[in-house]
Design a protein that fits this description.
The chain has about 350 residues and is of the alpha+beta class. It is about 30% helix and about 30% strand.
Length: about 350
Amino acid sequence: MCMISAYIGESPAASNLIETIRHQESIFGGFYTGISTLDKNLFYRKRTVGSCSAFTSQFNLAELPGSIGIAHSRTNDGGGVEWAQPRYDEKLGIASVGVGIGGVLASNDQTLKLAESLLAEGAVYHTRLKGEKKNGIVLSDNTTIHAAEAWLFAMGRLYNNGKTLLESLREVNLRSESVTLYLTTREPDRIFVANHNSRLLALKTEKGMHLVSSLLGFQEKIIWSIEIPPNTFATVTKNEVITEVLWEDEDRYDFKEPYNLNSIVINYIKDNPGASWTDTLHATTSNIFPEGKASLAFSMFHQAIERLLKDNILKYEIIEVQGVEGQCGIPQMILFCH
């Protein structure tokens, strides 16, 4: 589970991204942080194990030039800094961050065949580690890569050979519970979105365009906003969002919230004051959403919590928990009723 963000505008992307992620990381993140920007057709990428505070203490944001970029913060799902996003291939000129359901790609035999064929053709995997890792696939040489990296490389090769990004995505037929943001050197003035069934908001401000997983903590004055629907491919520029259908043979998810989700959340928090966002999510959605619709549950839960906080029915506090490898100081949100 994780939070993602993107920015395109006139001001430095890195500073905008780090502040947006900082306000979101206590929800589903803080254990790993990463940013990639694009400037003069070059990628700049920094990642760390730890929160935004760890990131800014380790890196100078000036090392990430450019006014377009993507960012990622995630929970403690294992792996070292190699497992942190953004993922990228500098030679192919493509980078991505994504929110997805762990193990979906790793359990796909097609992914292993794809990864091995790309390796034989000279692909250099940045997530490659010795031994087995969660959400990874084990190659014939007993090293492990993150499954999503193989799919990104496959898309990048098609895109680099002249296909559009949407054509490339459709050709590799990558379908999983996720929303992914892409940067490319071929089209450096836009951000691409492939939203299968998750929540993503586009927010227009005086500084430019922001893409966020949640409105919680967003500080800029919003001129206008839209929610990018599920089963949508979007092209995002400084001033507009252009959408088209992602999979023509699939229906869009119905994002209508189950009528009683608000009440279920309130009753759970009353009985469990100080429960974490994650614990509350699983406890309140597991019985009311269809099996295999985890991303839909996450999206509806985000909306319910935002509304209950805005209406002062719920409140939250931020506590610090132990991070990866014994690190401390990871901010996490806990919920209470007013």
